[in-house]
TrEMBL record:
Domain THAP-type: 1-83
Organism whose genome encodes this protein: Gouania willdenowi
Keywords of this entry: DNA-binding, Metal-binding, Zinc, Zinc-finger
GO molecular function: DNA binding; zinc ion binding
Superkingdom, taxonomy of origin: Eukaryota
Name of the protein this chain belongs to: THAP-type domain-containing protein
Keyword Metal-binding included in the entry's annotation: yes
Amino acid sequence: MPDFCAAYGCSNRRCVATKARGITFHLFPKTKERRRKWELALRRKDFSANNRTMICSEHFRREEFDRTGQTVRLKEGVVPSIFNFPAHLQRSVCLQSL
């Protein structure tokens, strides 16, 4: 069974082609608090990750990876932050006047 990225609008799935492009897949954290942060970051209504839910490396910054060993791992405490949300899911930015 193929594994797909859980991010909104992302069509990456774990296969030979994505591996060749250098895309890695990462399971959601097991701890309740960290998993909840990832779920909220995705901005998907009523979304709840299970033990097989994954997100691809395209939703993390380069410096958030530990590439020292054979396996590419995420550094401790990292939350996905790179998404291409449609307008209705964009967060509004409040600008303060000086």
